[in-house]
Amino acid sequence: MISKNIFFKLLTAIVAVSPSLPSLAKEEFEDETLAFCRYIKTEAEGKALKLLAPEAIARSFPGGDNGEVVALIGLSKDLGDFRKRSIILKIARQECSIYEQSIELRNQVDSLLPFVERDGLSNKLKLLAKAKGKIDEEINKIKERIQAQNETIITLYEAQSYVKRLVTQERETKLAMEKTLLPIDKLEPISTLRFKAETLLNAEVALQKLLTDLQKQDDWGFALVAGINQRISINDKIDSPNLFIGVNARYNLASLPANQTLDQANKYYAEWKRLDSTSFDNRISQAQDELISLEKQTKLIQAELLKESEELQGTIDKLTQYDASDAVRFTTKLRLDAVLLGIELEQNSYLSQQLKELKINDVLEPVK
After folding, report:
1. Residues 6+ apart with CB under 8 A from 288
2. Neighbouring residues of 195: CB distance < 8 A, sequence distance ≥ 6
3. How confident is the model at residue 64, as a pLDDT?
4. Where are the alpha helices (DSSP H) in the chain?
């Protein structure tokens, strides 16, 4: 007779390898992306607005030995600010794109196993309803035999207890489905996920290069300056103000070696991202291995269930040769057990078929 624990063995196997997922609907993930992009782009627009405007300047310095002071007011604009503004806006767009890609890829990778689990739970509800119909038919036969005084009321009570067990399993299955809220509608092939992971990594490397380019803009400066200057004397003599236009230029003498070091750091960053154990590519490989492992488990359990089903059916066939009341009663119990065993068998077969179809669709692509 099949052990009670075997009924839950496959479900346990799935849950054991399933990652924890936040209970958020798909719309909430989309709202999260929208909120982040709105924040990052608005912040960049504020920085860009500052870089468009000139700076007001006011200075004073000695104008000679007679105690004169020269006062200067005007406007100054560094031409490099226009380049900085362009880079800052690009960085914001890139960060938004990377965040959106990360959320989408995370949802797909984290949902691989839970998606299979939820699909299995949905099928299990159908099997439970089907099994309940079979047991109801058996209960009706038992009632007929009771009326003919060929069966006892105890057998009826035992049969009805099987219905209660099915109802309990149905309630537990529905509860498990309610806890499994997924942010995706369908699975994507592993090859597609790997391509997206590579695209995301390249985008992160490109973002790092943009950040480096922004730092390099501080290496030099070329500012246009315009305004008026006023010579003020301690003898209360004030000359007429003069208009002036000038330039301010600057250059950091360590720029060349510093920039070479920054470029080398970008290469190290790209290498680190590819070796990062928490990268999406590694997470995809882990989920892929778990799916392959699950597929192997379903085959082993299927063989075990088929063997028990054959043994159970063999026992039922032998008992049908006897007309004794005890034999009839025990045969009825075995037929009810066969119904429960059939749920496990069909559920495991369904999961095995689903995994095979996913493999055909390249979701279970062999790990290279």
Report:
1. 112, 190, 364, 365, 367
2. none
3. 65
4. 9-16, 26-52, 80-147, 153-179, 190-216, 255-275, 280-319, 325-360
Nearest partner of 56 among 225, 207, 214, judged by Cα: 225
Closest CA to 232 of 224, 245, 241: 241
pLDDT in tens, 34-89: 999 999 999 999 999 999 999 999 988 786 666 678 888 999 999 999 999 999 99
What string of DSSP letters covers 158-183?
HHHHHHHHHHHHHHHHHHHHHH---S
Predicted TM-score (pTM) of the model is 0.69
Tokens of 66: 């007679």
Q: Tokens 């960049």 correspond to what residue? A: 44
Report the alpha-carbon distance of residue 18 to residue 20 in Å, rounded. 7
